[in-house]
Design goal:
Blueprint: E1 5-7, E2 18-22, E3 25-30, E4 34-37, E5 42-45, H1 52-58, H2 67-81, E6 85-88, H3 101-113, E7 118-122, H4 125-130, E8 139-142, E9 146-148, E10 151-153, E11 164-166, E12 171-176, E13 182-191, E14 194-196, E15 207-208, E16 216-221, E17 224-227
């Protein structure tokens, strides 16, 4: 099913974005790998995988920590949208080995600066093994799926036709140029009635898509979302 898609005007809030209708909800696909739901004043992201770098460090593989960068990106989105609520579609934490005191202290301090923000986590497969976040993060944790205002919010994309959003797949698309050069770019995937978000984390491998004719792909190229 093809959904109505409207390219947004080049405003500060919606620059480079695309708007589409999912069920009765108008959603704005943002190039920052997030979805803005204006009617609910809600920002949605998926797959932050906080603590993944710490997990690698425990295995003596030094990886620069991306927590500060990802929280700064999130702050910019929250400021731009003036969101009242943040919903994370699973995999907030990467693993139990990634429950690093340094990472946890940084996120706890960030949460103090965002005290008015309501945060909900739809538990993903990594959350089930990593455990719920600390109480001082003040995050409501709910099971997959959870209904909100006519949409079903999931981590794992379901195999049916109910309108909703999900994460888990970390979708990317491969593009080839005339000189046989290629790019892997994060994207949104509209599969049946489920909009799958790209991973918000800066340190997550993407899964290259194999799409069908009835699916829609919205690629992210720097500061622009465009239909492929």
């Amino acid at each position: 099913m093809q959904h109505p898609v409207v390219e947004r005007e080049n405003t500060d809030l919606h620059a480079g974005s695309i708007s589409l209708m999912l069920g009765r909800a108008e959603l704005v696909l943002l190039p920052e790998r997030a979805v803005w739901w204006p009617e609910q004043r809600t920002l949605l992201i998926a797959d932050t995988h906080f603590g993944k770098e710490a997990t690698f460090c425990r295995m003596s593989i030094p990886i620069p920590d991306q927590t500060t960068n990802d929280l700064q990106r999130l702050n910019q989105l929250l400021d731009r949208t003036d969101a009242a609520r943040l919903i994370i579609l699973g995999d907030l934490l990467h693993s139990r080995h990634g429950r690093s005191p340094k990472v946890f202290a940084e996120i706890a301090e960030w949460r103090k600066q965002q005290q008015q923000l309501q945060i909900t986590l739809v538990r993903g497969n990594h959350d089930l093994s990593a455990g719920d976040p600390p109480q001082d993060w003040h995050i409501e944790c709910v099971d997959d799926p959870t209904p909100v205002a006519g949409l079903r919010l999931c981590h794992v994309p379901p195999a049916d036709d109910l309108p909703g959003l999900a994460g888990h797949l970390h979708p990317v698309i491969g593009l080839r140029g005339p000189a046989r050069d290629s790019l892997r770019m994060p994207c949104f995937l509209l599969r049946r009635e489920t909009l799958v978000l790209p991973a918000f984390s800066s340190f997550v491998d993407g899964r290259k898509l194999s799409t069908t004719a009835d699916e829609q792909v919205f690629c992210i190229a720097e500061d622009q979302v465009f239909a492929v």
